[in-house]
Write a structure and sequence with these properties.
The complex is a heterodimer of chains A (about 120) and B (about 250). Chain A is α/β, with parallel strands linked by helices and about 120 residues long. Chain A is about 45% helix and about 20% strand. In chain A, strands 2-1-3-4-5 form a five-stranded parallel beta sheet, with helices on both faces. Classes of the chains: A alpha/beta (about 120), B mainly alpha (about 250). The interface between A and B is medium-sized, with 31 and 29 residues.
Chain lengths: ~120, ~250
């Protein structure tokens, strides 16, 4: 299981990376926005994407759209971990095809639950 | 000064008349004086017009500035809002620091206890190797070893969950970073408005179109407690989960 973590704050990338490691996912890579993340996704055989929304350069929602528009990537599971908590934004992310949505600040337990739920759905 | 130009034709005409009068011996001093006054008036008129125009421009600029709602919003909404957000930054950094300190304070005795028990077992083990232990002491050591295994397992788990807690507390850096960036952009906006205010004194203000602060699709960033209590803002992960569930997730 290869996972890409996209967030402009390195501290948050590190937190998510460590949490994923605790959950048994050791193969992770990082990018600081959509512009650097998308090429990694296109060339890297990733199985899962965890992304922030508000980032300079290319935002998480644009990255999600680009992933869904890409023939090779369109079925990649995407989990959004963001501070954006407005109803219209969550609805927008859902419409664009996000697989899970976590608002910051979050707990380790929440991340675990959402990831498990996403994989349950995919396998089920 | 690019104001109303002096009417050159008129000035030339008057100047030529003045020269003619000067050259003529018949001209009285009174006549000369009145001709010079006429020329003077020409200049005064354009000066007054220019002054009037400048006054109008300054007045318009000041009125425009006053009517710009964004400026009023900055003072009455954005600045108090920024103060609350910065208070929240202090609160979050304090909370993160306290969380880390609390975990360390709770964990240190555990680590010390574990280390203490290990060194005690080590000395018993050395006695055993030297065959200095009696049957009873050996039995007691076996019991201690079992207890030690159980305890190390439990304590290691406690320490690991403490590490996770410390790590999660570091999320404050992302959230406070986002809030501080918002405040920095507010400071920039105030700065450029102040510059515009200063410019009014020297020249007419060319006001750039300012984007409305609550433009559509604008990212709001981290939720600050006590702020943004509209039903459109989710108050936590449970709200988000409910909303997504209602959308068929």
């Amino acid at each position: 299981m290869k996972i890409l973590i996209v967030d402009d704050f390195s501290t948050m990338r590190r937190i998510i990376k460590n949490l994923l490691r605790d959950l048994g996912f050791n193969n992770t890579e990082e990018a600081d926005d959509g512009n650097t993340g998308l090429p990694k996704l296109q060339s890297g055989n990733f199985d899962f994407l965890v992304t922030d929304w508000n980032m300079p350069g290319m935002t998480g929602i644009d990255l999600l759209r680009a992933v869904r528009a890409d023939e090779k990537l369109k079925s990649l599971p995407v989990l959004m971990v963001t501070a954006e908590a407005k109803k219209e934004q969550i609805v927008m992310a859902a419409q664009e095809g996000v697989n899970g949505y976590i608002v910051k600040p979050f707990t380790a337990q929440t991340l675990k639950e959402k990831i498990e739920k996403i994989f349950e759905r995919i396998e089920g | 000064m690019d104001g109303t130009p002096i009417n050159r034709d008129l000035l030339l005409e008057r100047a030529q008349a003045l020269i003619a009068s000067l050259e003529s011996a018949e001209t009285s001093d009174e006549q000369l004086e009145s001709q010079v006054d006429e020329i003077n008036n020409l200049r005064d008129n354009s000066l007054f017009k220019e002054l009037g125009k400048m006054t109008r421009e300054i007045h318009d600029s000041i009125m425009k500035f006053r009517m710009d709602n964004r400026i009023a919003d900055l003072a009455s909404v954005d600045i108090p809002d920024a103060k609350d957000r910065l208070e929240y930054v202090i609160e979050m950094t304090e909370k993160a620091a306290n969380t880390a300190m609390a975990v360390i304070e709770d964990s240190s005795p555990l680590a010390e206890k574990l280390g203490g028990e290990a060194s005690q077992l080590k000395s018993q083990w050395e006695k055993f190797r030297k065959r200095e232990l009696s049957q009873d002491e050996l039995r007691a050591m076996g019991h201690d070893v079992e207890t030690f295994f159980d305890e190390s397992e439990q304590m290691t788990n406690k320490l690991l969950s403490g590490f996770t807690e410390i790590m999660m507390a570091q999320g404050f850096q992302d959230l406070t970073g986002q809030i501080i960036r918002q405040v920095i952009s507010l400071v920039h906006e105030i700065e450029s408005n102040l510059v515009a205010l200063v410019k009014i004194q020297g020249e007419s203000l060319v006001k750039e179109e300012k984007l409305d602060s609550k433009e559509e699709g604008k990212l709001e960033g981290p939720q600050v407690p006590g702020k943004e209590t509209s039903p459109d803002i989710m108050q936590g992960q449970d709200d988000v989960d409910d909303l997504l569930a209602s959308l068929g997730f």
